[in-house]
User: Fold this.
Amino acid sequence: MSFIFDILDKEKKVEKGKFGKLINLRKKGNDMRKTVLILLVALMLLALPASAWGYNTPTVSKGHGVVYGMLTSDSHILIGGEYGFTPDLAIAAALEKEIKIALKYELSSSLAILGGVTDFSPFIGLNGGTALSRDFYGMGEVDFTVNNSKVNFLYNLGLKYNLAKNLDLRGGLHGNVGDGQSQVSFGLGVGLKY
Assistant:
């Protein structure tokens, strides 16, 4: 497991040999290793049965928001967005095969909690994200819902690349585990910040 932490740390000092010398393990390939690690996690999620959902980052800005549109691999169009009412509270919605409406509360710049309704069933979830570079951002969401007395686990794992200050390219995979469904959907689209 420790090699994962070595991959994710750009600089890490470790003890070497009996003399306790410290060496710097700075490697040029760390950015590439992060990308490969993210892709491996995404490929592992491909084995899970799934149906489609959308993407948002955990950050909230009062008086600002984002609108996005995506094409999914199961031939659907996904439209979504959010708007911040306070520095920590936003309303978010997504429309594809089903409607998802939620309130989002930002706990930190990398984590938010969500609660709302999807397909007429209540859900609660976590939304997380991290900057991978100046313009490259990883994001994900995990939601739990009960539909017809069955517990469902909804997830998405995506990447966002800033093309301009208010325009980004976003994509990834999204799905549903626990309701006997067995499809995985990929989405690719653009987001507009306002």
About this structure: The longest strand covers residues 150-164.
